[in-house]
Specification:
mainly alpha; two-stranded antiparallel sheet; 13 helices; binds 3-hydroxybutanoyl-coenzyme A; PaaA_PaaC; oxidoreductase; Aromatic_CoA_ox/epox; phenylacetyl-CoA 1,2-epoxidase activity
Length: 311
């Protein structure tokens, strides 16, 4: 009986079909989806903090309105992804506890500080650009709820990237000091944005199985390469230099060669020893505790509604 179910599952995945919540799935498939989608959701929620830091400091009402819309989008992406995770039998309250207790991860990129307003443009251009490279293939992930969540999220991410690039182009057309502010932000965010794609393929314990289950459609290094090749001409159009002296076009490979990533830094940040890890988790814990009354009120209201409908 299970053998038939397993054969069905394998056939569906091999035929680029969709696995839906009520379908039979191997325990490992469920577990790795919960791991990846929960951590993706955590990344969206934690990602609100670095940008939120500039909502009250935005240089104009227009920039404040754009940034507010973007941070609200990230919150929405997080809720979307928690809903997708809940179709696998876990509850977002449990996932939030795991995040706050550092038992689940979120993207390393959000552990760096946003020191100037140019960081907001660079996050839009580079971080959301990297996220787009990583998320577009996930629209073809074998798990239905995840793939469908990605379609909506990718549409909003492209607005995020365009507003970031436009913000930087405005600064680059400004004063020397503004141009220097942009270059400083690019220097600080370039290498961490490469680390968003995860460890090198040879050091990735999950890639092979995730590719076989068509959760992942490309490996970490393939997507990282795609991101570099996409970004180099954009940096030229912007008039900034990417901080990698080994970055150059390789005619033979038809791709850019680039320097070595500092995997010690990556490991440190993933382990929790990055510049802002403690602050990000402390803020998330505080927001969760301070929000208890909202959850209680919503639950009380729902119970009252239920009593009313029961009559
Ligand atoms: N930060 C933190 N942890 C990372 C990481 C990073 N940048 N890259 C990899 N890791 C972790 C993995 O989670 C895994 O640990 P785990 O087994 O405890 O979960 C370990 O390092 C080994 O990495 P693998 O490559 O084996 O793990 P995956 O196969 O899961 O690949 C991934 C990592 C490419 C991030 C993949 O999980 C993925 O595509 N996730 C969905 C996309 C995502 O989470 N993006 C976050 C970017 S932020 C974002 O999108 C928000 C946007 O609004 C900017």
């Amino acid at each position: 009986e299970t053998r038939d179910l397993e054969a069905d599952f394998e056939r569906t995945v091999a035929a680029e079909g969709r696995i839906e919540p009520r379908d039979w799935m191997p325990e490992g498939y469920r577990r790795t989806l919960i791991r990846q989608i929960a951590q993706h959701a955590h990344s969206e929620i934690i990602g609100m903090q670095p940008e939120g830091n500039w909502i009250l400091r935005a240089p104009s009402l227009r920039r404040k309105a754009i940034l507010l819309a973007k941070v609200q989008d990230e919150a929405g992406h997080g809720l979307y992804l928690y809903s997708a995770t809940e179709t696998l039998g876990v509850d977002r309250a449990e996932l939030t506890e795991k995040l706050i207790d550092a038992k689940q991860k979120y993207s390393s990129i959000f552990n760096y500080p946003t020191l100037t307003f140019a960081d907001i443009g660079v996050i839009g251009w580079l971080v959301d650009g990297a996220a787009i490279c990583n998320q577009v293939p996930l629209c073809r992930s074998s798990y239905g709820p995840y793939a469908r969540a990605m379609v909506r999220i990718c549409k909003e991410e492209s607005f995020h990237q365009r507003q970031g690039f436009e913000l930087l182009r405005t600064l680059m057309a400004g004063t020397d000091a503004q141009r220097a502010m942009v270059q400083d932000a690019v220097d600080r965010w370039w290498w961490p944005s490469l680390m968003m794609f995860g460890p090198a393929d040879g050091d990735s314990p999950n890639t092979q199985q995730s590719m076989a289950w068509r959760i992942k459609r490309h490996t970490n290094d393939e997507l990282r390469q795609r991101y570099v090749d996409m970004t180099v001409p954009q940096a030229a159009a912007l008039g900034v230099t990417l901080p990698d002296p080994e970055l150059r076009w390789n005619e033979e490979r038809q791709a850019h060669d680039f320097g070595a990533i500092d995997w010690d830094e990556f490991a440190q940040v993933v382990k929790g020893a990055g510049p802002c890890n403690a602050q990000r988790l402390a803020n998330r814990r505080a927001a969760h505790e301070e929000g208890q009354w909202v959850r209680d009120a919503a639950a009380a209201y729902a119970a009252k509604q239920a009593r009313r409908t029961e009559g």
